[in-house]
C-alpha cells in the first residue's frame, strides 16, 4: 500500500524461452502416379548403361534429348525426420535430392542436407551410398572419383540475359540452397565463376558432400529462363596458385583431424617442450607469443653492440696472449746407464705387479768357481799332448 492509500500490484511478465527448432516428419514429395515416366527416344543402336544414353546416334540431337526434370527439391519444405534418424543411417535419399521421393517419413534414408561434420562410414561412397570409381567418366558425369576431392561443379547451357555479375548472382541464388558456397577474392566474394558469352559457370562449395547433393538436385533443372542445365563435375583447376591453396587446405584438414584424435594433454606437453627447445614463449592457452617489436629492438641492439663486442674480443685476445706465458716444454727423460728411461719405467711397472701378485723376485745365478792348478795346463799352451 502506498502513502496516499492506493494499492499497487506487481505483475510478473513471464520470460520467453528460446525455442529450439525441431524437425517435423518428412513430407511425401510426390504421390504415386504424379511423376510421368518418359523414356528417352532411341537415337542410336546400343544403349550405354555407363553413360545412361544411346550410343552411335547423332551428336546434334544430344541437346534435344535432354528432358527437363518434372520435380525439384525444396530443402525448407521437404526436409524432415525419417526412419534413418532412428536407425542411424548416414546416407541421404537420392530421390529426395531430385524432389520425387514418395515415402516421406517412411524412407530408410535421410531427408536432409548432408552434414560435413559427420564422417561417412565409407569414404569410397558418395553421400547417397553409391560407389565411387578410380577415374572420372569421359564426360565428367556420374558418381565421381575417390582419388580426388572435388568440390566444384560445371554448369552448362545457361541462358545469359545480363552481364556476367548478374548471371553470377542468378547462379548463386539457385545453388546456395543446397550447401554453403566457398568464398574467394573475386569482386562478388563468392566462388561462382561465369564464362560470359559461353553459357558456362563453375560453382565451388565448401564441402564435397554439398557438391554431390547439388549435382543431383540441379541436374536437368532451370534457373530463371526455362533452360535445361547440364551439371557435371569440373576438371582440376590448372592454376598453380589454386593447386597450392587446395594442397594447403587438405593438409590443414588432415592436421585438424589428427589433432582431434590426440589427447590434448599430450599436445600441450609437446608444445611446451618444443617452445623450451626453440626458446619461445607461450601464453596460458599454449599459443605462441610473437613480440615483433621486441625482436626488432633486440636485433638493433645486437647490431649496435656487434662492433663493441668485436673490439672487446680482440682486446681480450691480445691481453691473454701477453699475460699468459707459454706453457713450459716438457724435457724428454734422460737415459741412465745402458737402459733408457722408458725401459726403466717398464721394469719398475712389472716389478710392482709381481709384488702385488706375491711372486718372489727372480734369484741371480752365480757362476761356478774356477779351479786353480799349480802348473800350467795343456790349454795354456794350445796343445793336446801330455809329453
Automatic annotation (TrEMBL):
Acidic residues biased stretches: 295-306
Record bears the keyword RNA-binding: yes
Bias kind Basic residues: ranges: 17-30
Highest taxon in the source lineage: Eukaryota
Compositional bias ranges of the Basic and acidic residues kind: 31-40
Family per similarity comment: Belongs to the RRM CWC2 family.
Protein name, UniProt field: Pre-mRNA-splicing factor CWC2
Native source species: Lentinula detonsa
Amino acid at each position: 500500500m502506498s502513502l496516499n492509500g492506493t494499492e499497487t500490484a506487481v505483475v510478473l511478465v513471464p520470460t520467453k524461452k528460446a525455442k529450439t527448432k525441431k524437425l517435423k516428419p518428412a513430407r511425401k514429395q510426390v504421390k504415386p502416379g504424379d511423376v510421368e515416366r518418359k523414356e528417352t527416344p532411341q537415337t542410336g543402336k546400343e544403349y550405354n548403361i555407363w553413360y545412361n544414353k544411346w550410343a552411335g546416334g547423332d551428336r546434334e540431337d544430344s541437346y534435344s534429348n535432354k528432358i527437363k526434370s518434372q520435380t525439384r527439391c525444396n530443402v525448407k519444405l521437404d526436409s524432415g525426420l525419417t526412419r534413418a534418424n532412428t536407425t542411424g543411417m548416414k546416407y541421404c535419399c537420392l530421390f529426395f535430392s531430385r524432389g520425387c521421393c514418395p515415402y516421406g517419413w517412411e524412407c530408410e534414408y535421410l531427408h536432409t542436407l548432408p552434414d560435413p561434420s559427420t564422417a561417412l562410414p565409407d569414404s569410397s561412397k558418395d553421400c547417397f551410398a553409391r560407389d565411387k570409381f578410380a577415374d572420372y567418366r569421359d564426360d565428367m558425369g556420374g558418381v565421381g572419383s575417390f582419388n580426388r576431392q572435388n568440390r566444384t561443379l560445371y554448369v552448362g547451357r545457361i541462358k545469359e540475359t545480363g552481364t556476367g555479375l548478374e548471371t553470377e548472382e542468378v547462379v548463386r541464388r539457385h545453388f546456395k540452397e543446397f550447401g554453403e558456397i566457398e568464398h574467394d577474392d573475386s569482386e562478388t566474394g563468392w566462388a561462382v565463376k561465369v564464362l560470359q558469352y559461353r553459357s558456362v559457370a563453375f560453382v565451388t562449395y565448401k564441402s564435397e558432400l554439398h557438391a554431390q547433393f547439388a549435382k543431383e538436385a540441379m541436374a536437368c533443372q532451370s534457373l530463371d529462363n526455362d533452360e535445361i542445365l547440364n551439371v557435371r563435375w569440373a576438371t582440376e583447376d590448372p592454376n598453380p596458385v589454386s593447386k597450392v591453396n587446395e594442397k594447403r587446405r587438405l593438409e590443414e584438414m588432415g592436421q585438424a583431424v589428427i589433432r582431434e584424435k590426440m589427447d590434448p594433454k599430450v599436445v600441450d606437453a609437446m608444445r611446451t617442450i618444443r617452445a623450451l627447445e626453440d626458446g619461445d614463449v607461450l601464453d596460458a592457452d599454449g599459443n605462441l607469443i610473437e613480440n615483433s617489436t621486441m625482436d626488432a629492438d633486440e636485433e638493433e641492439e645486437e647490431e649496435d653492440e656487434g662492433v663493441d663486442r668485436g673490439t672487446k674480443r680482440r682486446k681480450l685476445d691480445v691481453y691473454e696472449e701477453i699475460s699468459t706465458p707459454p706453457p713450459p716444454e716438457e724435457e724428454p727423460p734422460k737415459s741412465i746407464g745402458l737402459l733408457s728411461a722408458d725401459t726403466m719405467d717398464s721394469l719398475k711397472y712389472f716389478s710392482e705387479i709381481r709384488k702385488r701378485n706375491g711372486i718372489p723376485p727372480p734369484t741371480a745365478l752365480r757362476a761356478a768357481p774356477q779351479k786353480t792348478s799349480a802348473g800350467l795346463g795343456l790349454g795354456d799352451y794350445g796343445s793336446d799332448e801330455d809329453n
